[in-house]
Amino acid sequence: MAVHPGDSPVHVALRTSDVDEARAFCRKMFYGPLQVNPVGDPAGFAFAGDVVTLGSITVGEISYGADVRVNIADLETAYHVLAPLNGSLWSRHRGTVVIADPTRAAVYRPVGDIDLEWPGDTRLLSVKVERAALERELDAALDQQIVSPLLLGESFDLAEGRGRTWSALVRLLHTELCAEEGLASSPRMAARWRDMVVSGLALTVEHPYGDEPAGLQGPRRPRTVKRTLDAMHAEPWRQFTAADLAAVAGVGVRVLQEAFRQHVGVSPLAYLRRLRLDGVHAELSRSDPWQVNVSEVAYRWGFTHLGRFAGAYRARFGVSPSQTLRERR
C-alpha cells in the first residue's frame, strides 16, 4: 500500500472563550461559510475543539460551553456527519429537522444550508468526508452510475447495528490520532483506518442504491439488470415503458421486475423515476434561477405531467422544485 502525503494526520486543538477565535478555527478546519453566534449571555462561552485531518476526512470533537446557533451555507465539496457524544442538537437541512443525540446522528449533503441549535452542554464528533471520496467508494462498489451529489438519508442510528460500529470506529480513530505514539500515528495504518471510515459510512448511511452496495454483497448484478440500468442512465429522459425495458434486457416484463426487486430494491420504472428526480434536483441545485425555470428542467428530464412531478419531487426531497431553485439566489 503506497503512502501519500495526505496519509499523515494533522492534529490541531483550541480552547478559547473568544467567539471570533472559535469561529475562525471552525472555518479553517471545516468550512469557510460558517457562522457561530451565542444565544443569550455569552459569558459562559468556552469553546473546545480537537480536530484531526487525515487526507479525505476531518474528525473533530467539538463543544461550545454555551448555547449557540451555527449556520453553514452549501458544503459543496463534502458530506458531513454530526454524532453527539452527550447532550442533543437541533438540526435543519433541506427542510428536514433532525434531533441528534447519542442515539442518532445527523447527516448533511453538499447542497443546502444547515441551521443548528447547539446547547452548551452538547459535545459531539464532527466528521467531514470529501465528496469525491465517498462518491468514489460507492461508485467502485456498484454496478451502476451514481447520481452526484448522493441522496443520503438525513440521519442514522448510533445505538445499534452499523451506525454503532461506525461511530465506535470514528471515536477510536480520533482518540488514537490525538495521541502521539498510537498505531494510527503510522501513515500506513492511518490510511487504512481512514479508508475504513469512508467505506463504513457508505455502508451505514441510507442511499438510493439498495440496502447495501451490490459490490459489497458478493455476486454482481445479472447482465439483464446491468443492461437495463445502462439504458436508463444513457437516456433518462426517454419515455420507456415496462415493455421497452424488458426488450432492452431481453427477458419478459415479470422476470425483469423480479430481478430489479432482488438486485436493486425497486421496480425498473420506480428506479427510472428516482433517477430523473435526482437529475432534476442536481440541475436545479446548481442552476442560475434567473436563467432557467422548473418546467424546462422537468421536461428535459422526461417529466411530462408537471403536477405529478411536483408531488413526487416534494415527497423525495421535502421541498418543492421551485424552492430548490430559489435557494440558489
UniProtKB/TrEMBL annotation:
SMART domains per the UniProt record, alphabetical: HTH_ARAC
InterPro entries per record: AraC-bd_2, AraC_XylS_family_regulators, Homeodomain-like_sf, HTH_AraC, HTH_AraC-typ_CS
Gene3D superfamilies for this protein: Homeodomain-like
PROSITE patterns with a match to the protein in the record: HTH_ARAC_FAMILY_1, HTH_ARAC_FAMILY_2
Pfam families: AraC_binding_2 (PF14525), HTH_18 (PF12833)
Keyword set, alphabetical order: DNA-binding, Transcription, Transcription regulation
Keyword Glycoprotein part of the UniProt annotation: no
Ranges of residues in domain HTH araC/xylS-type: 226-327
Protein name (Swiss-Prot/TrEMBL): AraC family transcriptional regulator
Organism of origin: Paractinoplanes rhizophilus
Origin organism lineage: Bacteria, Bacillati, Actinomycetota, Actinomycetes, Micromonosporales
